[in-house]
DNA sequence: GATTTTTTGATTTACGTACATCAAAATTGG
DNA sequence: CCAATTTTGATGTACGTAAATCAAAAAATC
């Protein structure tokens, strides 16, 4: 049997009330007494029964998710996963709210965060726009003991407790190697479609991609990056245009969202050409394109895992508990048409 | 606030004791009364607070893991993950025990299961040897209301509640496509190294692999399968022998364990040849081989996820609760040297 | 040494459920 | 209709922790 507060009280030679004061950092305990209790806790290996504690406290975990208001399948999917989590909230004692902010807009994100700091949620998850202003508020909130995790896209150099997303440099590198290996001995040009260089995940993917391309596949030349702002219409225009102008394109890497537009452009302008295409994010559109051979591989981050991981981590941080690191690592999924879920 | 037993009692117009009798299927409730209570439960959307219930019951979950006594890195890793889970058992109210049985030995597995049926654990996870005798006991145990999940390798047509492992047909298909795409226009022969055709996971991987090879890569010929019994020594011998005899081999698919032997053989016999190699299971050996380009891609199942998933599912089944299907799907990891964890 | 302040103890209630006991009511059998 | 049986209610305790109250003891201040 694991020890209880009663065992601690007996072992330390103090009353239950004192143990409670120590455990819940309430005032009115002398330093020496506090130490006696802490020693007993350590020696007996006491671990607070979180279930019982939550029951007694009637505790719930008010959590806030801050998402960019982007109209693409990935963000819709992320939203859907959060709604799923809301359905489970009674069992998990969570109370989840989402706030949408304009995409790629640091100032809007900052003001939302400022406001949140007043209403004291017990945890915040945000898709970070990577800007110094954002980092400043996040760091301040962390210092004020708000558990904060970044979701999908991280915040450079910030104190956030955790990042629930994939390693985007590795993702870019992986895309490059897949593209290079799939193309084999062919020489030609590679078009890269990104959302915006204002978000860190896109920058990092590009960074990884170009690094491996330069190191290992010198016969493939990367064309200037097309910035589609994760918008299907803009993406369509940019890709269609590039394909028309440049007959030397033999491969495409789409590292952002808005793949609907990319796929349409490919089907319109490249029916007669053999292109090798790698895209990010598994959605209804990219899935169909993978199956009909328009896309050769999809790199994906599982939005459901990211949301559940963010919630687990925020709850754990709120309780001052450890997390299972390996469990919270968000893996890069690679889908070919054979291993689609 | 979610409804409690008190709310149910009030709504149904009965006493707390009667609600309790209904909830815990105790006798002494008239049919009509029982229905009244069940209606109230449904209408208020009552969900038992599992944490409070477990607290009251002082419940623990005695779980048993049955593993083959195989001396390879994957099984060692699986064992290590179970030990990790044991460390968490006080917090998770689990009481985990593992039993080792001889590998590829249905009779041994059956007798262990028979014995377990007497001591009533609240859940069993087993790496199944796919044999009718094993299926028969498992089905009997399921009918006797033992929660059972298969781990890593499934049991054909059985009633087990859940399978915590990857889709091995998809894994084989994926391996074939990666190999085919990496080899590009080359023609030649492919060596396949398996553990044993007695376990379903290996059979399925081979099935998926040969299917895609036949459909999509007719220029690649699959040589007769080498059965290495997941043993590094045997694997080494078989692969070295095949490489010496057959100069036409341009690719290797290792779908089982014992990759230490494979890697040694490759380094000894194929330094001067350009081979494309796909192997299963990320271990210290395969990881090193991926980094030094001896292996081109590794397909992996995350043993930690499998163990944690098995535990979650067994607990949920023991409590008669639903599981989050998407969370319990074990994904096939594809590792290139760029996305190693 | 008396007074104030701080620290500690003892005790109670609560959280939501499980489970046991005993009495009261309702139903059934004869 | 009475007795036997079944069903239901009322009540209390327990699980491990949180949180509050009030009294008692110890320490610090003058």
Automatic annotation (TrEMBL), chains A, B:
UniProt-listed CDD domains: HTH_LacI (cd01392), PBP1_sugar_binding (cd06307)
Chain coiled-coil ranges: none
Superkingdom, taxonomy of origin: Bacteria
GO molecular function: DNA-binding transcription factor activity; transcription cis-regulatory region binding
Keywords: DNA-binding, Transcription, Transcription regulation
InterPro entries, per database record: HTH_LacI, Lambda_DNA-bd_dom_sf, Peripla_BP_I, SBP_2_dom
The UniProt record lists the keyword Oxidoreductase: no
Pfam families: LacI (PF00356), Peripla_BP_4 (PF13407)
Domain HTH lacI-type: 3-57
Annotated protein name in UniProt: LacI family DNA-binding transcriptional regulator
Organism: Rhizobium anhuiense
């Amino acid at each position: 049997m694991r020890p209880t507060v009663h065992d601690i009280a007996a072992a330390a030679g103090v009353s239950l009330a004192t143990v409670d004061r120590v455990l819940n950092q309430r005032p009115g305990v002398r330093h020496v007494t506090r130490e006696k209790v802490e020693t007993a806790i350590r020696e007996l290996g006491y671990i607070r029964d979180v279930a019982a504690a939550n029951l007694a406290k009637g505790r719930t975990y008010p959590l806030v998710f801050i998402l960019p208001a982007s109209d693409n399948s990935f963000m819709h999917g992320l939203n859907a996963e959060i709604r799923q989590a809301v359905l489970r909230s009674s069992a998990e004692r969570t109370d989840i709210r989402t706030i949408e902010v304009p995409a790629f807009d640091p100032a809007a994100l900052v003001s939302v965060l400022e406001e949140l700091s007043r209403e004291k949620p017990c945890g915040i998850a945000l898709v970070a726009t990577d800007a110094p202003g954002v980092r400043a508020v996040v760091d301040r909130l962390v210092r004020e003991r708000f558990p904060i995790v970044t979701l999908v896209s991280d915040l450079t150099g910030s104190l956030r407790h955790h990042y629930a997303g994939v390693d985007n440099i590795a993702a870019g590198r992986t895309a490059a190697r897949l593209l290079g290996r799939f193309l084999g001995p062919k020489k030609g040009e590679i078009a890269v479609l990104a959302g915006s260089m204002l978000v860190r995940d896109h920058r990092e993917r590009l960074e990884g991609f170009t690094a491996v391309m330069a190191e290992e596949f010198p016969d493939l030349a990367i064309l200037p990056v097309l910035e589609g702002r994760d918008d299907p219409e803009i993406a369509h225009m940019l890709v269609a245009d590039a394909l028309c102008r440049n007959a030397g394109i033999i491969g495409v890497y789409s590292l952002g969202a808005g793949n609907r537009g990319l796929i349409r452009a490919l089907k319109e302008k490249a029916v007669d050409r053999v292109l090798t295409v790698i895209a990010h994010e598994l959605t209804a559109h990219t899935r169909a394109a993978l199956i009909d051979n328009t896309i050769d591989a999809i790199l994906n981050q599982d939005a459901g895992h990211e949301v559940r991981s963010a919630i687990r981590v925020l709850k754990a941080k709120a309780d001052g508990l450890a997390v299972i690191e390996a469990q919270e690592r968000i893996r890069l999924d690679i889908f070919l048409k054979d291993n689609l879920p």
